[in-house]
Amino acid sequence: MKIVRGIPNHEVLDLNYPLVAAALERFIREELHGRGFEKAVVAASGGVDSSVTLALAARALGPENVHALSLPHRDSSPESVAHARLAAERFGVALETVDITPMVEGYAEQTPDLTPRRKGNVMARARMIVTFDKSEQYHALPLGTGNKTERLFGYFTWHADDSPPVNPLGDLYKTQVWGLAEHLGVPDEIVHKAPTADLEPGQTDEADLGVRYRRADVILEHYLKGYPDDYITGLGYTPEEVALVKRRVNRTHYKRHLPAVALVSSTAIGEFYLRPLDFRLED
């Protein structure tokens, strides 16, 4: 990472995108094959993250081995649905649409005090129900689409967006996802629109977060690498922005970990017993 005092822009996060794309394609192939899968399922929201994931999966596995799912609710933006279709067409992936309205509204009818934000979370979890069921139907592993910025901020629906077992974008900031999207040929309409989870009408990510992604990402990178606040503010960021970013990261550690398990043995999963892929059996 280039660190240049006095140049507060996203260029400090620039990557070699052809190299990153090749590495992520290999990652997808190896992680799926190690689990016994040849196909992937991607919930296509019409946003840049899921579109990049679709592109990488199609390149890694062949578009015929990728199942894209459009999972709209009646309150979803028509633009989101159109952009999901546009991304699938761009990368040659078949798109299947499943309307989650009956699932969500069936619960909403029994929950008169359901707030818009809670209902949005129900939508996100309903989408994962469909995604994992389609995974079973097609024997295709779900791919996650969450980026590093959202994961660090805890800005995702717990046990929904974070549920897929393989996530190629989890170590890329939003700024870097945009750069990778341009390299992969994601349609401009998707790359340059305002990011939104589309869980509530009119919702945008940056309004929810209180800071623009391109500014948050540079603050995050410096904060995670141990630079003090005065150094970061010296790059042109306000003390309020730095405090907001740190607060969001520090308050959401629990969302980035598996369940806390009381240790009562010497074979605790995730503590002493490593992940199954570390113990692949030879036939």
TrEMBL record:
The protein's Enzyme Commission number: 6.3.1.5
Domain of life of the native organism: Bacteria
Protein name: NH(3)-dependent NAD(+) synthetase
InterPro entries xref list: NAD/GMP_synthase, NAD_synthase, Rossmann-like_a/b/a_fold
Keyword Glycoprotein attributed: no
Pfam families on file: NAD_synthase
UniProt-listed GO biological process terms: NAD+ biosynthetic process
Lineage: Bacteria, Thermotogati, Deinococcota, Deinococci, Thermales
UniProt xrefs under Gene3D superfamilies: HUPs (3.40.50.620)
Catalytic reactions on record: deamido-NAD(+) + NH4(+) + ATP = AMP + diphosphate + NAD(+) + H(+)
GO molecular function terms attached to this record: ATP binding; glutaminase activity; NAD+ synthase (glutamine-hydrolyzing) activity; NAD+ synthase activity
Gene Ontology terms: cellular component: cytoplasm
Matches recorded under NCBIfam families: nadE (TIGR00552), PRK13980.1 (NF010587)
Pathway connected to this protein: Cofactor biosynthesis; NAD(+) biosynthesis
Residues spanning the membrane: none
Family listed: Belongs to the NAD synthetase family.
Chain ranges of the NAD/GMP synthase domain: 22-259
Keywords on record: ATP-binding, Ligase, NAD, Nucleotide-binding
